[in-house]
Design a protein that fits this description.
The complex is a heterodimer of chains A (about 110) and B (about 130). Chain A has about 110 residues and is an alpha/beta fold. Chain A is built from three helices and seven strands, in the order E-E-E-H-E-E-H-E-H-E. Chain A has a five-stranded mixed β-sheet. Chain A is globular and about 35 Å long. In chain A, about 40% of the residues are buried. Chain B has about 130 residues and is α+β, with helices and mostly antiparallel strands. A five-stranded antiparallel β-sheet of chain B has the order 1-2-3-5-4, covered by helices on one side. In chain B, helix 1 packs antiparallel against helix 3 and helix 3 crosses helix 4. The longest helix of chain B has 23 residues. The two termini of chain B are about 15 Å apart. Classes of the chains: A alpha/beta (about 110), B alpha+beta (about 130). At the A-B interface, helix 2 and helix 3 of A face helix 1, helix 3 and helix 4 of B.
């Protein structure tokens, strides 16, 4: 489960380096996210730009991560691709997250 | 007519979806319709792996026929029957209750048409159509 976390001030951006968050890997995703967010700041943003596909298992895992982080920390989403956006919208779970068009660029890259 | 048989395991479902999505009937479809195919088949196949077969392993037989504007799909497995021999309604919990499940049948019911389930000779037979 390829997840790469970078801290940007009060935000932890987690880039998902997998094409799919699905039944085959939803549990690993959840477990790995718990590990990565142990010392997370108030905002955690999942950068989903590489994720082409997410099924109901993947959606459930993302919601579980959000519930695990709350109430002290908020999970936001960024860069939902077409199928992923469709799944969130059809299940109305897009109403539950702040969804950004893209994750912020790395501050390190700007130097 | 496209026929595909896969083992009831999550990675076999992934490979089967990849094979399905790159097959000849799919190449002429719009991207939107291909996305719908992937979503519905992923949910149906995952349900069979998790609920029909559970800890047992078995095979899932997929058959797809193209008609004008439609894909007619049939999926057979030899797992446990659907509870009550009926398809789940696919009702959603309120999103603000932060459900972690119950999404699959809602997606299937929303996107697929003419959905029909039968139990025939110890087989589950699920038929539905998708836009093409």
């Amino acid at each position: 489960m390829q997840l790469h976390a970078r801290r940007e001030d009060d935000l932890l951006v987690v880039e998902v380096g997998e094409e799919r968050i699905d039944a085959a890997c939803a549990i690993q995703f959840k477990d790995r996210m718990r590990e990565l967010t142990v010392d997370a700041p108030a905002r955690v943003m999942l950068d989903m730009a590489a994720v082409r596909f997410l099924d109901s298992s993947g959606l459930g895992a993302v919601v579980a991560v959000m519930k695990h982080l709350s109430p002290d920390r908020r999970l936001e989403l960024a860069a939902l691709t077409s199928t992923v956006e469709k799944v969130f919208r059809l299940t109305r779970m897009d109403t539950v997250f702040t969804i950004h068009p893209e994750a912020p660029a790395s501050l390190r890259d700007a130097i | 007519m496209l026929r595909l048989t896969i083992r009831s395991e999550p990675l076999a479902v992934r490979n089967g979806l990849r094979e399905l999505l790159s097959s000849a009937p799919m190449r002429q479809m719009t991207r939107t319709n291909r996305e719908v195919v992937e979503i519905v088949f992923a949910e149906v196949l995952n349900n069979i792996v998790e609920h029909a077969y559970g800890a047992e392993s078995g095979e899932i037989a997929i058959a797809i026929a193209t008609e004008p504007g439609l894909l007619r799909c049939r999926i057979c497995d030899q797992g446990r029957p659907m509870p009550g021999l009926e398809l789940p309604s696919g009702a959603l919990c309120d999103a603000s209750a932060l459900p972690e499940g119950g999404f699959g049948w809602h997606l299937i019911r929303t996107l697929a048409g003419e959905m029909h389930y039968q139990r025939i000779d110890r087989q589950n037979v699920l038929c539905f159509t998708l836009p093409c």
